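Changelog note: in this version the structure field was regenerated for every chain. One regenerated record is shown below for reference.
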Amino acid sequence: MTVFYKIPESSAGLNPCSTSPVYKTFAEFKKIAAKVLKSVGAKNLPPGKRRWKALDILVVLVYAWLRGVSPHHASRKLNDIAIEKGWFKPVTFADGRHSRAVPHQTQVNEWLGKMELPQLKKLARAVFAVALKEARRKGYLPREVVLEYDTTLRGYWGRRRDRLIKGTTKVKGTHHARQYHGAMIHGGGASLYVALDHVAKEESKVPFLLDTAAWLKKIGFKVKWALADREYYSYSVLSTLKAQGIDVITVAKDYKQLRCAKEAYLAGRKGRVQSFTIKSGAKAGCKVQSIKCRLVLYPKKKYSLAAIRRDLRHGAMTMDEACERIYGLITTAAPQGHGKKFPALIRRLYRTRWKIETGYRVADVKHCSWRSDRDGTRFMDEMGRMLLLQDLWQVAKGDDPRGNTLTLETFRDEIVNKSTCQINA
């Protein structure tokens, strides 16, 4: 059984962040690495060399992901710990070099360099499967979950100008970035990342959405709702997920159709729940398709719909000012069966979407990026440091008596802590 985290033992002589060691031998890391290797399949990974196999390299990567550090730091630290604890006795060669307990960072980087981006995505899915099964086994995740999609940008300062490097003005200090699409599930009070994808220019995001939903169903989860950012506001996204039996909730873009819906509501001609149509883009020789959705109007913070309509009716504000204080959410779900609770249900579900944004910001607090220009290596950095570490932290909070007071930084320091109660960097 793989143990990701051990509950700290209370002691009057130790401070709250002092814990018993979680991993005492390489066997603990190899348990996780072996599960990952079994899940992804050895045939989908490079075979390694005579001295170091894929399992040995995965041990270094697992340590790097759990600690949020680079492969160089992980390899050096694991080797020092093995020698210090007496688990490994190095042999001195004729040229003065010493044998190692774990692969050097050059072997790890060489192994990662042999893998293409599609192979690394399979490896990432296997790693997420280990974390999800652990959470499911402990009962922290119910069978029915809410799926969420969102994007994030990671700045690029190199000279490459290919399809995987996009132009942007949203990253400080550079005008180029890599764009990643992430997926997270919510349920039972827990929020866990489940997928990551590196998206190229003009590449459709629909396959990633469908593959993630299908994979979750395959491993035993039931997805009824999907939350998405306004970047996923399109006919292809809404229609394909609806065909899979998943209702989508996203923000309505400020187009003319939304403005007309707001004016109709403020004038009293329509209610706050209205029919809304999203059409596919017009292409030469293709028929325009459409999907029927529901638009639900909500007031922005510090306002209420009744007060906005009253002030507009009494002339205290203009129509433009009234429309600015209202936003809309679009859903493919039908209001039948929910009654007057339908607007509250949609807003309550969509409010959970901000957890993935918070997760992105938390990951940037301690940015230990792997220094590589390879897209695959950077993809593994984002997957491990940004997503997997937070998944294990969420699972640990369910076991730890400190609950929500257990911060990510404290968890990172305690997960591979030595018996001396010193932070194991």
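Spot check on this record: The beta strands are 144-155, 166-167, 176-187, 190-199, 222-228, 247-251, 273-279, 290-299, 326-331. The chain has 14 helices and nine strands.
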